[in-house]
Amino acid sequence: MGSQSVRFVGLPPPVLTALLAGELAAARELVGVELGELFVSDAAKWLWDFRLRQLASDPAAAAWIVRAVVAEPRGEVIGYAGFHGPPDEQGMVEVGYTVDPAYRRRGFATAILGALLERAAGEPGVQVVRASISPENVASLATVAKYGFVQVGDQWDDEDGLELLFERPAGFTLAQVEEIHERLGSASTPAAYLGALRAVGVWSSDSYLADGRTTYFGADGLAVTTEPAHEVFEVAATSDQVAVVELLEQVAAGGVSYVDMSRGLAELGVEKWTFDTEALTITYYDRAGRALLAEQV
Fold first, then answer.
1. Fold of the domain spanning 174-296
2. How far is CA 116 from CA 52, 71, 97, 113, 224, in A?
3. Which of 23, 70, 148, 154 is the most exposed place for a label (fewest CB within 10 A)?
4. CB 95: neighbour CB atoms within 10 A?
5. C-alpha span between 116 and 112 (Å, rounded)
6. Which residues have C-beta within 8 Å of that of residue 292, sequence separation ≥ 6?
7. Where in this chain does the entry annotate a coiled-coil region (predicted)?
8. Which regions of the chain carry the CATH code 3.30.1810.10?
């Protein structure tokens, strides 16, 4: 999701200690990246103190907690992020991230959260990912919504005040789905495409012809949705099943772009198509929800 790419760089205790003391140059030398003034702000120092005390009581937390975030390929440090600690008894981890104000509104928060979710998805002990967000933080609320988080409650934090609690299953991420789509999402490889989606936990998907949005569904209500893929097309009120079959045959033969296919199907009254990764089927529906065509792949 999004076009930004990030990597994480660990902040071991000597780096956190230097940052807590305001020794930015020493911390930069220790960690090997150009940490910014954000890392010696009052809010950051509070976090470094908290994490150092956490590590003193639970050294195993080092594998999970805060890291510097580096934007690729330019190598700029754009913030810090991590989990609050290892998974608890229920397999829950909580994410936290801060983007340097100079780099906000560029898609970095989305990239950071996606990277954290990929880490969580690869950990057998993680079942649920949580995020706690101020109700006034509109940008973060929008970011977690992109990744299928749902509100499960709220809490009062002594430092941050009222926070809304959001959770989602640890399953697949949109970045994983988009990588599979880039690699296998052509008309010539539908079975391999659906098999790869199933392997990461996608059970089904709905793709809408009006704007190219796709929602992918998994276990325990997990659902993530892409951004629109093209301009808005009006879906015809009546459908033409024969013409739909003919257009899909042209797509299978090659030479029809995704956008042209979407436009053509919308004009023929197709509102969406649905993948079932277990049954290996693709079903096309009209605006009334009637199945026009079901194909086995």
1. YdfO-like fold (3.30.1810)
2. 21, 14, 9, 5, 15
3. 154
4. 22
5. 6
6. 239, 241, 244, 269, 270, 284, 285, 286
7. none
8. 174-296
Q: Which residue has the tokens 């190219």?
A: 212
- 36-73 pLDDT per residue, tens: 999 999 999 999 999 999 999 999 999 999 999 999 99
The CA-based diameter of the chain, rounded to the nearest angstrom, is 72
The CATH number of the domain covering residues in 5-123: 3.40.630
In this prediction, residue 140 carries a pLDDT of 93
Cis omega (within 30 of 0) for bond into 73 = yes
The CATH 3.40.630 domain(s) of the chain lie at 5-123
- What are the strands of the beta sheet with 150-157, ordered from one edge? 5-10, 67-72, 76-83, 92-99, 128-133, 161-169, 150-157
Total residues belonging to the chain: 297
Q: Which residue has the higher pLDDT, 207 or 160?
A: 207
Question: What type of residue is 256?
Answer: V
DSSP for residue 212: -
**Residue 208, class by beta-carbon neighbours within 10 Å (0-12 exposed, 13-18 middle, 19+ buried)?**
buried
Contacts of 259 (CB under 8 A, 6+ apart): 212, 229, 230
Name 168's Cβ contacts closer than 8 Å, sequence gap at least 6. 128, 129, 147, 148, 149, 150, 222
Cα torsion angle, 50, 54, 57, 62, sign: negative
pTM for the full model? Answer: 0.68
Which phi-psi region, left, alpha or beta, contains residue 107 (left: φ > 0; alpha: ψ -120 to 50)? left
Q: Which residue has the tokens 């109700």?
A: 135
Query: What is residue 228's DSSP assignment?
Result: P
Alpha carbon of residue 98 to chain centroid: 16
Contact 103, 76 (CB under 8 A): yes
CA distances from 234 to 79, 212, 245, 272 (A): 42, 12, 19, 12
